[in-house]
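## retry 2 of 3
previous attempt timed out at serialization; input unchanged, resubmitting
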Amino acid sequence: MRTLRLTHIAVEAEGLRLRERVKRAVTQILFGILAMVFLMGAIIFAHVALWFWLRQYWEPHAIALMLGAGDVLIALICGLLAVHSSPGRHELDAMTIRNRAWENAKGSLSMTAVVLRVLRLVGGFAVRRR
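## retry succeeded, writing output
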């Protein structure tokens, strides 16, 4: 019974860990998409800035360059947030519980196997003596 309970705990902990990992992956994907949007905006503004710079010297292009630089900065920040996502406290706790439960379940299974062998041996000797 203890083995089944430990196995159940391990399965629940693994389910929690996987749910937390999926949440983290979705967050990474969303920040990655957001970074791509801002990068595309930065490229567009860089082209607009170059066009203004070539067409009208020195004034309107400064605004476009600033907007482009701002988009690049935002894209870099979002990209770093997407890449630098590590497992959260709940995911780490779930992995620890799962590992402990599996180790205890394995130990309990091996102990059960040893006890059954000993009982079979003892039972076998008792039957042979009669």
